[in-house]
From TrEMBL:
The lineage of its organism: Eukaryota, Metazoa, Spiralia, Lophotrochozoa, Bryozoa. This is SVEP1. It comes from Bugula neritina. Disulfide bonds join 137-164, 386-413. Pfam families: Sushi. It comes from the Eukaryota.
Amino acid sequence: MARLANVFFCAAVTACLSILLTHATDHATQEMCAKRLAHGKRLGRRCIQYRLNDQPADEEVVVCPRKSHLIGSRVCKKACTQNSDCKGSKKKCVCDDVCGLTCLNPTFNTCERLRAPKYGSRLGKKLTVGSVMSFVCDTGYKLSGTAKRICQQDGTWSGSQPDCSPVDCGDPGHLWNGYIEGKKFTYSSVIKYMCFDGTKFDGLAMMATCEATGQWSFPLPRCMGSCTRPEILHAQLLLEEGRAAPISMDHGTSLTVQCSAGLVVSEPATPVCNNGTWSSLPICVQGGCDHRPKEISNGMALYRGTKYGDRVRYNCNAGYKLVGDTFLTCRNGRWEGTVPECKAVYCPHPGELTNGKVLLVGNIGKFEYRPYIRLPGQSEKIVYYCSTGYRLEGPSAATCINGMWSPDTRPKCVDNQHPMLPKTQELFTT
Ligand SMILES: *[C@@H]1O[C@H](CO)[C@@H](O)[C@H](O)[C@H]1NC(C)=O
């Protein structure tokens, strides 16, 4: 980690002023540096803390304290409050960063020569206090450590020696249905993207180089699986150009499904091979009916649809009887069965009424109903009358409903004079 260099600007009146100098080349800092250093000293491109024009130190005591909590790994020289505290004749009591007022040699220390990192170079030659030495790595290498080191008052360089290590693009990932040739993933390494046989390469390039930016020149491609010919009963499978489909087909192939005669595809689909799987697979089904079932008179056709297997049911109106098939089924494009007919149903002649007569109720009145007259149809009525001296026992009328008289009990005309003989006696009299 780069250590921040604390620089003090010392001026006659303002005493020590510290600013954090993180970027020695920072323009604003440079300017400030030049301005504030009227009574201080300036070295190279850096403002350095220095005893203000060799004036007595006591003026600064308060403003340049030793900041023990910030010292860290720094080794501080002897602390002082004034020049006379520093025994070595050449040393002076100066403000030394976090070390506070310290006895130092004002004729500057020099720092040791620094080597350039392997795969990199060093910029800057000066070894005097305040000099900056910077380091850059060759293309494809990245720097760790301190890129800019500053020769400090105590003769040591700030920060730590930098290192240049090759840029690593990293493992590009797993290539499904394929593999990657090449094991080195660092700068300028080349890898090959390989798809297994029977799969289709889907990508930008089959090779990639690890670039100085730490990126592969081409991303991981995709290897798309092939599809095997599907089994579709009663169908012929063709390729787009009309050729019969082979056992195995590449990713992206589309198929045409042709059903045998009388059959149709269940859905209007063209299966496409997508990475080993068909997008959809229709089946061959019996064709539907393209027309509705026939309507019939005096009845109706009830149906839901006209697809293969759908049924129609025929019903007749009241008074009509269905003759033919009640149900028809849609098969092979047509309604199978005989379209039925609704035939009117008539009531039979109810029989003669002894000692009475049967009358048919018509539009224009009642008239005697003889067996040779037309048969009555739905809802027609008959009424029963007894001759004089007889009385009707049973229903007096009946209605023709679906070919049957309702009620269907026949009345009798009994002698009005005499009570009915019991059955046993009847037997004796005959
Ligand atoms: C292709 O299929 C393989 C195997 O089924 C799967 O692992 C892979 O993720 C698929 N690739 C794509 C791009 O869908």
